[in-house]
Amino acid sequence: MSKAIPYGRQDIDAADIAAVVGVLQSDWLTTGPAVERFERAVAGRCGAAHAVAVFNGTVALHLACRALGLGPGDTLWTTPNTFVASANCALYCGASVDFVDIDPRTYNMSASALEQKLLSAKKIPKIVVPVHFAGQPCDMRAIGALAKKHGFAVVEDASHAVGATYRGEAVGNCRHSDITVFSFHPVKIVTTGEGGMTLTNDENLARQLRLLRTHGIDREKSKTEGGWFYEQVDLGYNYRITDLQAALGESQLKRLDAFLARRRELAARYDRLLADLPLTRPWQHPDGVSAWHLYVVQVENRRKVFDALRAAGIGAAVHYIPVHLQPHYRKFGFKPGDFPHAEAYYARALTLPLFPRMSDLDQDQVVEAVRKAVA
């Protein structure tokens, strides 16, 4: 009997466990020295000046919007091909949301569609959130140039793209954006259980992110007023990450290159094994190197293939239902046909299992099930 294969799975080893146990045996459990070490490690890996760790990727998006001053009367634009958090972060701030259609080859926000929408817009967005879908970087040079021309801020949602590169440099360096956001959910490239990170090269933004992460409390005057003294200077949140999570993340980060190498090996192997089947394999833009968080194919009769794979114990998934078609967003007037490339992609999209500990035999089992399902 074939074993069940999930679409994603964390990879925890003895060193990860020892790192967490080390924190349990220390004097710190919540935000402490392990968080600072993790932040320095991620910033160093990405080439960013500042990193601020938070409880999850959704929190990171929310804080990025708050730090950039998004509020009532403002608008955020993102892609419809993403998880709802990329849009919800605007609603949390009292702002409105609009979308930019995708490039039908990369499945990322189309820079040309963004340019056309900006040229015809009555109001320029305060923030644009491009999403590096499946780990493949967006056309950030073009998006960054549009940001300078039209005067909006850019938050890279790189939840899928820890370890990806764009034009030879690490995603997260914020060369073309104000803030980059990572997620460390268990199915992502590295995990902290739940966790997220904001990166920026702007010292003022970093200070605001840290302030909002901890209730809006500033302890600067404790140096003169007394060690007990603090002031709440803004309405912040308890969005802190724990030392337990950070220790796991720092340990995982040491194996990032190995995780990436295996994901890329599996993606290349899928490309070879699926080449003769009637499906569309993911296309990769030469400007970037994907982190391969997801391997998404497009097939006809997607529901039939999905059901057949699930019946065979294969954890197929679909990423994503276009956000503008969700019931909550239809309340704002969005409807089918608004973003045709994203909708056409969704109608045929199917995510196949991909994770570092997936063996060649596991992958062979997936491919054989796909072969039978599309026959």
Tell me what the structure shows.
The protein is globular, with a radius of gyration of 21 Å. The mean pLDDT is 97. It has 375 residues and is α/β, with parallel strands linked by helices. It contains 14 helices and 14 strands. The protein has two domains: 14-253, Aspartate Aminotransferase, domain 2 (3-Layer(aba) Sandwich), CATH 3.40.640; 256-374, Aspartate Aminotransferase, domain 1, CATH 3.90.1150.10. Helix 2 (33-46) packs parallel to helix 9 and helix 5 runs parallel beside helix 6. Helices cover 39% and strands 13% of the residues. The strands form four sheets. Strands 1-9-8-5-4-2-3 form a seven-stranded mixed β-sheet, with helices on both faces. The protein has a three-stranded antiparallel β-sheet with strand order 7-6-12, with no helix packed on it. A hairpin with a 2-residue loop joins strand 6 and strand 7 (169-170). It starts with 13 loop residues before the first helix and ends with a helix.
Short descriptors:
alpha/beta; single chain; 3-stranded antiparallel β-sheet; Aspartate Aminotransferase, domain 2; 2 domains; Aspartate Aminotransferase, domain 1; 7-stranded mixed β-sheet; 375 residues
Shape: globular
Give the N-to-C terminal Cα separation.
22 Å
Q: Summarize the biggest pleated sheet.
A: 7 strands, mixed
Strand content: 5-15%
In N-to-C order, the SSE pattern is HHEHEHEHEHEEEEEHEHEHHEEHHHEH
Structural class: alpha/beta
Low-confidence stretches: none
Number of domains: 2
CATH topology category name of the largest domain: Aspartate Aminotransferase, domain 2
In CATH, what is the class of the largest domain? Answer: Alpha Beta
Number of helices: 14
